[in-house]
């Protein structure tokens, strides 16, 4: 009998289980008024256990009684680890069980209460929380989800403190910042020696019983409150980053509370700690196949295939399905295939073609312009190069990192002259009429003048021909590499792939007839001794369309050139004076003046705007000059109108000394000391007697102490003498500054002249 009952119960149990798994329903009752609704099997699945396992690491930060602000910076936090098992309840809630373990600690030094405490705890935490991911407000399909969490946890802390070094010496913290083995106030303090902390936390805080708390429990509860973000990597992996603050129910983690004695008294609030962490989570639940099929079908639910057949994204009148040239600019005429018209059949459409009637079967560049034989030869040699003559130079350091290669790239320009004594007036105005002129100081007395900047030899040769036609017969092409100038090889289209060098090819231009006492332009046939090691490299980093690849202003445009002059001085000024001035040109005249100019403009309006910008930077005497056909002309001849007089006024003859800077930007200070760390005690005692001492950090990280600033040199000199005589600061000396930048005393006095 018992055996039959057991068999019956087992049969009913199996039937019930099979029924719940398949979701099938019993047959409808024949007496029912309506058939029973068959439910969706997927809806009857209920809760499915699909856990995710996470492992992460992070930093424990302590918030308690130690430190004046009761806050620990992340860079001195301790490392911690996180093991997490989670289960989703629905689309927006997730249950998490976790364990945390690691170290938590703090070190106090120079606190206002002078207690110099420290501790370190072994932390072990076990808890659970709920996470909410804002699914109600965010798109259903997303790769990132912010979250907040709240939970309850139990934790254990085993706190110790570091009171002794490895040799058993107790730490005593002295007022001078040192740590010694004898109390500073002890009678034998003179025998104290300096010791170092070993950061080995050997003393149990409870056993010390300094505050009389006894062996309080080192376990407590806490409430974790967190926030962060989840990033979906794929269906199985999720990356999590966040921070959780643990609000504990104990104030004994650091061994200090509001009931402590003496200077150990802390705040009433309980201790807290934060863990900032990142972790990787693996989902053990497989993605539902039906869900995958639904996703594939839903991908095309909203697609209007009929509209796609008639779409015309480039609006050229040819549907995309029949358009052979997608992306044609709007308004460009096209043929029946949707391709832009090309009347001369040179494979450059009309709207990009600068030469609409190129000869049949001719070779053209990207703008549809027929290429000459010399250019075709140049491009052929560039394409077929096997010697490295056209190669781009790229340098790497020992770690494989690419270095900035501008030091090794060739930069071509046209040399129009190298001078020692200075430019005569007629040649100075000639050079200033060249819109792309530049000046380079070879040494203290020699200046090189060049026109243009190009990254290929062909463009530089074309610019040279222009300058020769404009009356500079000795113009020649040079290139700059590694901060030095060299004569460039001549370009020849009939050299069968070889580059013919001139008599002094690749000789250093920096020595090119620099001693010419007549100040005439240098002759390209002079023989020099500084030979370049690269005498075959005729081009560096050019492309197939080199004739359009200049790296500076293109060829000079004939006409009036306007510039903004910043002054003319008897002595050369350093770059710090004009640090914020763009396109600066320095011209040395034959009467010994150094003229400084900025910019190159073809319209008075642009020059006036540039002048206003320079006025705002402190160059209050800046004025506009105009040059045309090698001569200086008036601004009226350059196109200025009386209504613009205030902005475009001109002054100063070419041989007149002019000071354009705001003298209020020139200041002086008296330096009284520079130290790597804090000044010695005897120096500091002297500094305290000086009024107006300021401390600043130099670019090299040193601490500089100065007095000032002073508006004139006499005041600074008087203060310096007083510091030496009355205070005894024998090494005091004067510094000069322009607009906050260091300059020499001589430059400062030059700028203060009328």
Question: What can you see in these coordinates?
Answer:
The chain has 754 residues and is of the alpha+beta class. The chain has four domains: 52-162 and 199-283, Porin; 405-548, no CATH class; 561-661, no CATH class; 664-751, Sporulation related repeat (Alpha-Beta Plaits, 2-Layer Sandwich). It has twelve helices and 27 strands. It has an eight-stranded antiparallel β-barrel with strand order 1-2-3-4-5-9-10-11. Strands 17, 18, 19, 20, 21 and 22 form a six-stranded antiparallel sheet that branches. It is flat, with a radius of gyration of 41 Å.
How would you describe this structure in keywords?
single chain; 754 residues; alpha+beta; Porin; eight-stranded antiparallel beta barrel; six-stranded antiparallel sheet; 12 helices; flat
Précis, in short:
The protein has 754 residues and is of the alpha+beta class.
Shape field: flat
Uncertain regions spanning at least 5 consecutive residues:
8-45, 493-557
- Which strand order do you get reading across the main beta sheet? 1-2-3-4-5-9-10-11
CATH class designation of the largest domain: Mainly Beta
Share of helical residues: 10-25%
CATH topology of the largest domain, what is it called?
Porin
Q: Roughly what is the average pLDDT, rounded to an integer?
A: 77
Total count of helical runs of at least 4 residues: 12
How many domains is the backbone divided into?
4
| Main beta-sheet strand count, sense and barrel state | 8 strands, antiparallel, barrel
At CATH level 2, the architecture of the largest domain is Beta Barrel
Q: What gyration radius follows from the Cα positions, in whole Å?
A: 41 Å
Distance between the termini: 128 Å
Secondary structure category: alpha+beta
Oligomer: single chain
